[in-house]
């Protein structure tokens, strides 16, 4: 619902209002009384068109207002430092797994007890490269 849509609705409203004024002046020229003028089918149709156009214009105004508010909120969020942002998902650093607790991997047998491990490697793994170097 851009500016063109709004302008088109305003033009239509002006056109319908002009037609209504012409019809009212025509009926008053025939010396028809006010209660009968209100019951005239063309007058009622033109008045309904004006109400519909007013409703559309009100929706357009609400949409423009909401768009401006969202732009303002977006600008505020961009200007605020990332720490001060409220709401939304905040990523927290995951805790490092505690020493001695290891997840089991499918197909793998239970690892050696934590005492036998040194720096995350078992003694057998540490000794194997040393033997190959000495040979």
Distance between the termini: 81 Å
Number of helical elements: 4
The tally of strands reads 0
Helix content: 55-70%
Mean pLDDT over the full residue set? 80
By secondary-structure content and strand pairing, the structural class works out as: mainly alpha
User: What's the Cα radius of gyration?
Assistant: 39 Å
N-to-C SSE string, H for helix and E for strand: HHHH
Which spans have pLDDT < 50 for at least 5 consecutive residues?
none
Share of β-strand residues: under 5%
Give the biggest sheet: none
Principal-axis shape: rod-shaped
Please characterize this protein's 3D structure.
With 135 residues, the protein is mainly α. The protein has a domain of 78 residues. The radius of gyration is 39 Å and the shape is rod-shaped.
Task: List its traits.
4 helices, single chain, mainly alpha, 135 residues, rod-shaped
Summarize the structure.
It contains four helices and no strands. It has helices at 3-29, 34-38, 41-79, 123-134. Helix 1 (3-29) runs antiparallel to helix 3 (41-79).
Write the layout of secondary structure elements.
Layout lengths: L2 H27 L4 H5 L2 H39 L43 H12 L1
């Amino acid at each position: 619902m851009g500016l063109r849509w709004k302008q088109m609705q305003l033009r239509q409203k002006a056109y319908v209002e002009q037609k209504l004024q012409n019809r009212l002046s025509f009926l008053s020229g025939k010396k028809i009384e006010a209660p009968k003028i209100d019951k005239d089918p063309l007058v009622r149709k033109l008045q309904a068109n004006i109400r519909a156009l007013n409703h559309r214009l009100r929706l357009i105004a609400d949409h423009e207002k909401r768009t401006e508010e969202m732009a303002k909120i977006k600008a505020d969020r961009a200007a605020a430092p990332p720490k001060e942002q409220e709401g939304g998902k905040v990523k927290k650093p995951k805790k490092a797994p505690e020493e001695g607790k290891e997840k089991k991997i499918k197909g793998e047998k239970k690892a050696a007890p934590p005492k036998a491990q040194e720096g995350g490697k078992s003694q057998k793994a540490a000794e194997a490269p040393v033997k190959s170097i000495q040979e």
